[in-house]
Every structure is written in structure tokens, then in C-alpha cells.
Amino acid sequence: QVQLVESGGGLVQAGGSLRLSCVASGGTFSVLRMRWYRRAPGKEREFVADINWSGASTYSSDSVKGRFTISRDNAKNTVYLQMNSLKPEDTAIYYCNVVIRNNDYWGQGTQVTVSS
Q1: Among the four residues 2, 44, 61, 90, which has the most C-beta atoms within 10 Å?
Q2: Do 95 and 39 meet the contact criterion of CB atoms below 8 Å apart?
Q3: In whole angstroms, what is the distance from residue 25 CA to residue 2 CA?
């Protein structure tokens, strides 16, 4: 059974940093592209960043480019999202995602709140 567990969220002042983690279990994640999404209050879920199996290829949305960095440690089945220069508009629940055989799997999310 595939499980994704996010952690690392919290309350931070604008300009601060947080590092989110997503630990995956129940599958062979080292060969899969992994993604981060977020959902802000009253808004649709938004793609944040993704990373290929080796970590050599990453892609970030324009809204976080240059501030957020996605990385992974396949030995630990863990994907990270380093978030720097946080803004109040980054406030959201952040979710880890993986697609396996056309099935979407999501974690429970971790709350990030950025105060101005």
C-alpha cells in the first residue's frame, strides 16, 4: 500500500525558510517522478515542483522559481522542498504526489503559514 507522509510545515515570518519532507513507502519510488502541490485557502490546488527519478531534472512553477528547490534522497525514499524567501501568498497546505500506473497518490499534507 502506497503511503506518502509530509512533514516540516509550520508558521514562519515573511522572508523566512522552511524545508518540507515527504517520506514514501509501499512502492519503488526511486524510479518515479515525484511532485509537490499546494492548496491555498479558497483556491484550487496548484502545482509547485517536480523531480525525476535521479534528481537530475526538476521543474518549478513560475510563482516559486528561484525561491523553492525540490530534491530527493532515494536511499531514504524521501523528497524535499526547500522553501526560501517565503511570502504570505505561499500560505497553503502542501501535498506530496506520485503517479503509479495512472493512479494518483497523495499525502495528508502539511500546513505552511507565512505571516507578514
Answers
A1: 90
A2: yes
A3: 6
The pLDDT value recorded for residue 27 is 84
24-58 residue pLDDT tens: 999 888 789 999 999 999 999 999 999 999 989 99
Closest CA to 39 of 99, 107, 102: 107
Cβ atoms within 10 Å of 36's Cβ, excluding its own? 27
Q: What single-letter amino acid sits at 50? A: D
Summarize the chain as % helix, strand, coil (round to 5).
10, 55, 35
CB 67 within 8 A of CB 85: yes
Cβ 36 vs Cβ 20: under 8 Å: yes
Cell numbers at residue 17, please? 525558510
